[in-house]
Amino acid sequence: MSDGAPPIGAFPQTPVAGPRRGPAPAGSSDPPKTVNSTPPLPVAPRQGTAPSGNPAPLIPLNVLDAPTQRLYAFAIYAGLLAWKLYDWTRIVEEDAESFWLLLKWVAIDFVVLFGLPELRIPWLELSQPFVVVVFFCHVVFDWVLMFNFGLPWQTWLFGLVKVFYDREIAISERNVKLSNIIHNSSLIMGRQIINILPEGSAALNPDQIPFCLGGDRKIAPIPIFFNATVPVEVQLIRTDLESNVQEIIKLTRVQLRDIERRSKVQTQDGSQVVVRYDYPAKKAGAYQLGKVLDEYKLEVQRKTPFTFVVPCPRAWVGPAPSSGRCVGDLSDLSIHVEGTPPLKIMYSRKINSEDSSFHFQSLQPEGFSSPLTGSSLSTSITDPTHEDISWARPRVVPIGLNESMGVSGSWQYSVDEVRDGFQNVVKYTAPADDPDGKPKPKDLVQNFVVKERPRIQIEGCDLRKPIKAQKGQSTELPVRFHMAQLPDDTSHSLIWEFSPIDTLTESGDHGRVVIPGSYRAKNSRDRPKISAPGLYTLKSVVAGACEGEVQEPSSCLLLNPLEPKLEIRSEEISDTCAGNSIGLRVDMDLIGTPPFTVKYDIVSNNVDRESKTVRISSLRHQIELIPRFAGHHKYTFTHIGDGIYDGKKLVGQEYVLEQDVKPAASAMIQHSTSGNAGTCLGDEVAVDIVLLGEPPFTLEWELIHDGKRKHQKATNIADNHFQIKTAALTQGGEYTLALTSIQDKRACRSFLQDELKISVRRQSPRAAFGQIDGKRKTLDVEGSTVKLPLRLTGEGPWTVRYTNLLEGALPDAKVLEKTVDNSNGFLDVQTRGVFTITDVRDNQCPGIVDPNAGAFEVDWFPRPELSVISSPAVHQEGSDYVVASVCEGDISGFEVSLKGTAPYHVEYQVRHQPIKGPSSVARKAFDATSGKSSILGDTAKAGQYTYTFSSLADNLYNSGRDLQSLVVKQVVNRKPTASFVKPGQTFKYCKSEGQDEDKIPIELTGVPPFSLDIEIKHQGAPIPEIYRTPSFNSHSYEIQIPRHLLKLGTQHIRLRDVRDGSGCHSMTDIGAPSVQVQLFEAPTIYPMETRTDYCVGERLSYTLSGTPPFEVWYTFDGAERKAKSPTTSFRRLAETPGEFAIATVSDRASECRSPVNIVKNIHPMPAVKISKGRNVQVDIHEGGEVEILFEFWGTPPFEFTYTRSSNARKGLRSQVLETRHDVSHEHSKVVRASQEGTYEVVAIKDKFCAFSTQQEERNDRSQKTLKYH
């Protein structure tokens, strides 16, 4: 049975994402795994996603679950720690570079520690402050390790590292593991096992391996073991699980001969005498071993427990009524499991590509009792005395899965694995894991399509804000359809309830009459049409077979307001003087939904027709219809509309009004400026007047200015149009022309209120030039734009006309014109001259020019100039200047004179023509603040330099392109140079002078002959010595430094000075390249021990004198090798036998090889084999005897120790029974034994070396000996 599974209904265990395995192969006979005695607590299932409150891991949990991610993270950290400790051992043993290793590990720790939180692995989501603290702790730890600070814990840490990495450099110059050499299992090989045969026995399936039949498993191979016997008859008893009927099965002759053949083969091999035979069971049942007879027809001892062969468990998914579901529906699914209870099933649920695994265990029918339900496999399961084995029959257990499907999309339930009470497992491979990609059978998979539920509500309408529509016309019911994710097909069905408006209750709810309604919408924007007034309430919505939710507001009230109506009443408006009717006053009463729109037509004198519209916001309104002309006027009201109804036509005589009108006399001012006019000082103003009434007219008006009124009158005006002309307005200010009264033919005087305001300028516009720096004259840069300030009065914009007197005198001069918007504007000019204003005008009136400020003078600043100042080192040749020649690197230059406005900016070109090769050009510039400047010559390289000045600019002029070309030339002689052919090289000399010593080569440039000063500085001397070479004529030279100038140690050789035949010399810089000369004594080597014989696995140690590192040349077995030692100690591990001879030794500092001859002999470890090195098992009867052969390798005589131990038994450890010691002067020896046990050698020793598997110690002669217990 499984590990104490909880009963049905418990939470399934936490699913672990991992690769699925296919079904177990047929005939699998793997024994059941050890189970725990205490059942674990049930664990609630978790999804393969991160909690909604935290960000999801970078690697999704359905790809790699959280425990595995944490395992990988700790594994990587442990691997990096092991790598770090390996680098530390390199520092300790090989003196590796500490600084670069420290930088490497600080960078690696930074990436790992700060990158780990970004993976967002559950339980490893470290906070930023914690990561920073841990990182600094790692930096300190790296610093301590990489610089090898002496701390107390380093000793045991180094020992701990050696446990995992124990390698040393052997004589073959490769790293070997010492433990592999000294613990060589091939030195002592073989063992002799002697068994005293008991009586024969037979056992059927002693390991109680479970078997099942079904599917691909057609045969169950039940093992039968025969010990020390060859059966001639074997009977098996099979008890049927269904009927409890027993059947006796006998093994055939072919099967018995097969058992006999196997027994003979194993007896010849000598490895074992227990014969196994697998009986192929093809029927289910409880098998037990019946009668077994040996070759003497005697019955063999046998164990007769039951071995159960049951049908393999299986599972299938019950058919669902339909594969369609809606969000929130129950899955309503059943899974059937068949097998021997208690059963366990594992299934997976896949929701939109997110896979989760679940399981049920301890599945069994109600009231079922079985020995498999105990905490462990009890003996009652296999005890043949219990005849009732009905509990082993296969049963069918249904499982109901009824979970809420809260996510829309694709759902799939799939059976992955089923296990019965005997731990027989059947796995169903997923298509992704199947190599052929075969899908699972249909009865193992159930697919569902879960659809979203729709939601609807009324928008923009409720009982407080009803929908109003015209009577008889339909409108859309404002239904809003929405889903979490809109599918391609959004068709849906709506159902609502409707109550007519006259059946609603006093509270506005549905009354006694409720009419159902429905609509099939084609898409989410399709809405039903409604026309009947009343209350509409949504009841349900169905989309894609899923009933949705009706949200509030769900009710809407539709109203049909009354059509608009109009009633009018009118009365005449009479003239108070003549008593004539001058218009109508109309009162309107309206019914409908405000605002109202009333349209009416006006027909005057049966000719003119005019349409007007009145907008009314209330239910009552009054208008006055007063025509301006006399005659017959007819008013017809044609249409009325309100907020619901548009343009209802009005028919009937009650909507027609007629009247004959003779209006009173009147007059109006016609002016485009709407009651305001402006004019210039001294101008006359003409005003047009329109007269209404019957001529002739008498018109009176007033002209008002500064509080004074001037009354004027005109009589007998026979026309309806009249023009009033004022006198010249010579005073500035505001005038008012006001109409006071009018009389027409009827002599009725009418009061008038129309007036016109006239604004008269108080002065004429004026124009003048402003001043710059207190005067009307300026200097500026040639070609620039000069802004001449203007001073203008009046109302802008102004039109200014001006001329330049330098271009000609008036009136022949060219006159220019410019429009200025600002009273303090500017005239932009780009030429020099005297500019004069000739005329000015503002936006309305002409002006005058100030005669004292009407002219402005403009002139240019002079341009800069450049010249070379002559001196003894500078003279002029033709148009060019020549500077005296100098040596390369010397200081040289010349001076230039500058005229203009400081500061100056000079640009020039330097052309260098070297002695060999093409020329080069460089452009340079400098700034100067005075009229004289020095130019430093370029003497960095030898050759001819030509300085060409091409541009000059000062504070005013940015470009000096008009500058004439100025050329200065100079010749620079080349300096001699000397350099080492191989700078930085170290020349090593021995103290004794040799014939083939290297000389220091140098190369020179310049004009021969040359002479050199060489500086020799010893590292211990404060003052260097100078060695001067004799003159030589070659461009290459080899320096031979006298030996008396050199001292033991290191000295730096530097070229200090070089002179050539041209008189130039050069001195090298302090940091110039140099070479080193090292003078050394010859190194030596001494052995640490005086003995000459060693064994394989021992260390050969030597001491070196000289300057590390050292190189040691030695021969081993005739092959010459070279080894390096970074310290003064040289140690090698003896890996193989042979002669080890050191020939010469040198150190890296001097390369002086010192000949030596130190020879050591390395002997092999002795070896022994017992029974030809094999594990031989011999079965004898009591009183028998066996010869044990011992074979030796090494140098005689041999001393060996062997033990006799008890034979290993299952569950019992072997114990040493006795220990024996023997000596052999030959390479083989035979010992006779008759006692049962296991004989093996534990120690061997020859003339030089010894080896033991128990304990080793070294004697006073530094050879290996054995200590026997």
UniProtKB/TrEMBL annotation:
This is Nucleoporin Pom152. It comes from Lasiosphaeria ovina. Residues 1-50 are annotated as: Disordered. Residues 65-148 form the Nucleoporin POM152 N-terminal transmembrane domain. InterPro entries: Ig-like_POM152, Ig-like_POM152_1st, Ig-like_POM152_9th, Ig_POM152, Pom152, TMD_POM152. Residues 201-308 form the Nucleoporin POM152 first Ig-like domain. It comes from the Eukaryota. One of its GO terms (cellular component) is nuclear pore transmembrane ring. Residues 1083-1160 form the Nucleoporin POM152 ninth Ig-like domain. Residues 453-556, 765-853, 1172-1257 form the Nucleoporin POM152 Ig-like domain. Residues 17-27 have a biased composition (Low complexity). Residues 560-663, 884-974 form the Nucleoporin POM152 immunoglobulin-like domain. GO terms for molecular function: structural constituent of nuclear pore. GO terms for biological process: nuclear pore organization; protein import into nucleus.
